[in-house]
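User: Show me a protein chain along with its predicted structure.
Assistant: Here is one chain, sequence first, then structure tokens.
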Amino acid sequence: MDVPLYAWFAVLAAIVAMLAIDLFAHRRAHVIGVREALGWSIVWVLTGITFGIVVWNAWGAEYGQQYFAGYLIEKSLAVDNVFVWAIIFASFAVPREYQHRVLFLGVLGALVLRGLFIAAGAALIENFSWVLYVFAAFLIITGIRMLLTRNEHVHPERSRTLKLFRRFVPTTDAYYGQRFLIRRAGVIVATPLLAVLVLVEVTDVIFAVDSIPAIFAVTTEPFLVFTANAFAILGLRAMYFLLADLIHRFTYLKLGLALVLVWVGVKMALLDVFYIPTPVSLAVVATIITVSITASLIATRGQGRHEVAATPAGMFRIATDAELAEAEPAFGRSRELTRT
């Protein structure tokens, strides 16, 4: 696949532009409702599909199918990421109007980190082809482990990352608007929102370890791996606000994701023995995800939306007006802080 340099710059420019538009649209803290989340989700999905059509027309059906297979895998695995975010937010009692800022920076960090992971993975595959078999074994083992532990729950309050953060970073127990750092009595301290952001970033790194080898199972083209990841990730914020209150209804999704990982691992392991066409792989992944979601919704029909229940990671509150008045920005000139 011959990808000119200007295509890379065009994609990066488009991603930056979309991030800027999203940031501008959510520049003021507010609770994002289901209707708004649905609208943005449609926008992001259509953007990813449109790019796939561009790839299909520019480089042919095979690469177009590889992109869509990778996009579907990343989008499916991202749902599990969304559910973990919901538990983290519930554990820290993060006000809904502050959650978008955390997710925006989390997604921005995820794009950078995944770009580095993809570059490293592509370099390894190019120089050591046997790495594909390592990826295959890892995916199969991860899928089986996910299958066996699918009923276990995430406990952010027990996270080693959180323990290290609290040990080395002085943190308040109050939220000062959307700020991650404030200056109090001349000392810079973190707000709980920074701890949440760190957990979100670490969580994405953990998920990337699974998802990036999975996408290499359907395409080894760095351009397709990166763009499928990027366009799937860009819609994660909207997906979160759309699905966060419906976690309890996706009872069989974890099972479906585990089967997807095992499937792509087997496909990668058989690469030099038996070639599985991309359309077949795409159809299998789509069928597994569709069946798992449909079965989940049927099994939980009649259940409405409700917030996620999670074990508290501490006692958190909103800073009072007096505390806001006493606090100062961590950097820059002193001025009174506001809740936004």
